[in-house]
Amino acid sequence: MLEISELRKRFAGGPDAPGGKVALDGISFTVRPGEMYGFVGANGAGKTTTMRIVMGVLQADSGSVRWRDRPLGADDRTRFGYMPEERGLYQKMRVAEQIEYFGRLHGLGPAAAKKAADDLIERLGLTERRGDAVQALSLGNQQRVQLAVALVHDPEALVLDEPFSGLDPLAVDALAGALQERCRSGVPVIFSSHQLDLVERLCDSVGIVSGGRMVATGTVAELRAAEGDTLRVVVRDPAPGWADGLPGTVTVAGDLHTLRTAEGDDQEILRRAMKAGRVEHFGAEQPTLTEIFKEAVA
């Protein structure tokens, strides 16, 4: 397991912030073997700082990062796959030779590096671009190459900072499929993203960070259960004032009125709705990850 425990980090201040800035204030979470962990938060929440500490780019003021029940060391990190926020590709190098080069840097022999590069080029849909310079690629294809660089040495864990940023749906599917394959083989994967619908679809567990603190963590099902269900009632062309006095909020789209509430007597609400007009939907709904996120960081 990859265990992050009580990480704290303060950056030195300047004229406008003499006391410095607290970037992390006790961040803790665990990523288990074969688990995909979504790390979400607003810009400046502490996601990138956490990942940089995990990878040894920054040093924490306090706290620990453990891997397989011992402190994570430099040798361990060479067996991790890392995709930084600032992409680190050689722009004039061709796609295939670049992936092979990074494989060699990770200790693969020439034949093994070439085979790994060829496999990833095919898996990530880069076959027609293998001879192109990186600078000639679209953003989506550059992202695919960056992920290939992170995967080429068959890493034991993956730490990916915004890997899906700016990608079209086809590129998202290609990258997601590659990550899911790694998870199925037992590799723990942590990635940050602002695309909460994607996190909800892919991740086993989620951590929500705000202001350098973990404000919610758990499986998507656990986070939904903690928020509770919401009753949604949709009535077509109801009588005016039909929902007066009922708990919740009503939104109107054309002749459809939608009541959402987490309180009240559902049978009484149903009676009122049926009396007012044609009921087109009546049922409990769990909150989306976007709704959970907004509530957690509010």
Automatic annotation (TrEMBL):
One of its GO terms (molecular function) is ATP binding. Belongs to the ABC transporter superfamily. It comes from the Bacteria. It is found in: Cell membrane. InterPro entries: AAA+_ATPase, ABC_transporter-like_ATP-bd, ABC_transporter-like_CS, ABC_transporter_ATP-binding, DrrA1/2-like_C, P-loop_NTPase. Residues 2-236 form the ABC transporter domain. This is ABC transporter ATP-binding protein. The keyword Transport applies. The keyword tRNA processing does not apply. It holds the Pfam family ABC_tran. It is a peripheral membrane protein. Keywords: Antibiotic resistance, ATP-binding, Nucleotide-binding, Transport. PROSITE patterns: ABC_TRANSPORTER_1 (PS00211), ABC_TRANSPORTER_2 (PS50893).
